Amino acid sequence: AKVAGGRCIRFFNEQMQEEFNHRQVLLDALKSAISMNQLSLAYQPQFCTDATSETKRIGFEALLRWVDEEKGYISPGDFIPLAESNGLMPKLNRFVMEQVMNDIDALSECFSDDNWVVAINVSASQIKADDFLRDLKQRVEAEPRLAQHLELEITESVLIDDIDAVAKLMREVSSMGIQFALDDFGTGYSSLIYLKLLPFRRLKIDQGFVRDLLNDRSDEAIVKTVIALANGLGLETIAEGVETEEQQHRLVKLGCYQLQGFYLGRPEPLAHWQKH
Ligand code: C2E
Ligand code: MG
Ligand code: MG
Ligand code: MG
Question: Which intervals hold domain EAL (predicted)?
């Protein structure tokens, strides 16, 4: 039994060792990508539509992109958690903010009027960092247009603890003019009371509910309920992951007029949107 146990443990350890090595290699590659400026932003357009008028571009979501020379495209779904658990998020966040500030002239030229937003994703650790507010204030001083155009996307994971501290922080940020969106809404564990207490401008209906909207009656019921809830609370809704015309039509019919997804536009470098 001892022998078998030993083998079993060794096998398990080898797998763990491999996994660990893989993460270590990826982490080293990420560190050097950061220091060698190999990260970039893609901007995915957001649209507003209704039954009568045509679709209008109203914003962009900024999404981090990393293309490694050897490994190729690496999804933020893979490297953001790695950055989170290795203390690299401040660097990534700084990069995103600085890039958006650099891009703000070009961004504003992508819109027909002044009512547009550029949304960035802010992780729980970032928003809870001591210098978050001070840093944001400094950036708004340096680039006052951020106050009008920046939106911070946070997920429900931010709201799990420290709700009073988060509420205070969000109110201060809101008073600067910067808005909040609740990302991936419906996938977390937050209580509905947060929607009442916290200054969100809009809810992002998670793409998981949009995917089978046409075929799954529970998903349709959830989307309907989220829209009704948002309307009742005076919040806007935007649907993520709209991949087909049929999904767009259904969402508009249900009363969700803001849309983001591959059907309307993929995340692309800013240069692409300057031409389209
Ligand atoms: P998210 O904030 O919910 O971003 C939406 C994700 O859905 C993006 O994936 C986007 O490319 C993808 N998407 C958009 N439209 C469609 C569609 O029609 N169909 C499908 N299947 N997918 C669509 P991406 O770029 O891989 O990012 C994944 C996640 O990584 C983001 O989810 C966000 O949580 C995180 N992330 C990305 N950039 C940043 C960043 O700068 N900072 C932080 N903290 N997180 C980031
Ligand atoms: Mg997002
Ligand atoms: Mg999302
Ligand atoms: Mg997500």
Answer: 23-276
